[in-house]
Amino acid sequence: MAQALAQAQAANGTSSNGSGPDQCGFKLKFCTVCASNQNRSMESHLRLAAANYPVISFGTGSLVRLPGPSISQPNVYQFNKTSYDSMYKELEAKDPRLYRANGILNMLGRNRGVKWGPERWQDWQIGVPRLEHNADRGSEGVEGGVVDVVITCEERCWDAVIDDLLSRGSPLNRPVHVINVDIKDNHEEALTGGRAILDLADSLNKAAAEERTLDPAGFDSGNAASRFGFDERVPEIIGEWQERWPNLPAVWTLAWF
């Protein structure tokens, strides 16, 4: 019953703690990540953007892979070079019946309404302005190229993000929370995962807005001391969220940009 209530509230853009994304007018900046920046990360990207959160999304794979006519025949594309619209048109021309039946055309249709095409996490220039993405859903607030929270949708993606951040050497000296919410890669689970991630975002944003009142300028600039109170509360927030969403195992760490 509690989980059903949490899911219903999250679907309406509110969480069980009663908060919404406009707490004190402040919004955390989010990044969602899956393997190909197609299904799970894009459903979450859309959910967060629809709730007025600044959000960007990426994939961690070497290539974008979509199901094909068989397991051994996937459709493969390059990150940053192929648009969702071109993928949609190509697959619609190849076999419209197959790709409608398996949900790929519906997914790509959703995606092309969110942003131009899939981006690769490892190619992201953190801290570099993303002005060419101003037409993306959720782009307002992340023009500066930094976020407060990264949410991955699979543990291998979480590992890839952490490894990449370590290899970059923290040039900005800015804290970032990296949370994995383990979501199975199918359309139904992506919908559930998107609602759960919005619920988590609302809980995190409520705490951040409360802690930010002590030093708004320091908090917004990513000062570690100014964010200490919020950083300390994140594990407890995730623990409470996990009780509401027990079928979506989560792990967390504090990393650095």
Percent helix, as a range, is 40-55%
Which regions have little confidence, pLDDT < 50, spanning 5+ residues?
1-23
Ends distance: 39 Å
Tally the helices: what do you get? 9
Strand content: 5-15%
Order of helices and strands: HEHEEEHHHEHEHHHE
What is the spatial order of strands in the main beta sheet? 2-1-5-6-7
> Structural class from helices and strands?
alpha/beta
From the alpha carbons, calculate the radius of gyration and give it in angstroms. Answer: 18 Å
- The total count of strands amounts to 7
Overall geometry comes to globular
Report the major sheet. 5 strands, mixed
What is the residue-averaged pLDDT?
Answer: 92
Question: Any overview of this molecule?
Answer:
The structure is a single chain. The chain has 257 residues and is an alpha/beta fold. Helices cover 42% and strands 13% of the residues. The protein has nine helices and seven strands, in the order H-E-H-E-E-E-H-H-H-E-H-E-H-H-H-E. It has helices spanning 2-11, 40-50, 84-94, 96-101, 104-112, 155-168, 187-212, 216-220, 228-244; strands spanning 30-34, 55-59, 64-66, 75-77, 149-152, 175-181, 250-256. The strands form two sheets. Strands 2-1-5-6-7 form a five-stranded mixed beta sheet, with helices on both faces. The protein has a two-stranded antiparallel ribbon with strand order 3-4. Strand 3 and strand 4 form a beta hairpin. Helix 3 runs antiparallel to helix 5 (104-112). The longest helix has 26 residues, at 187-212. The protein is globular. The model is unreliable at 1-23 (pLDDT under 50).
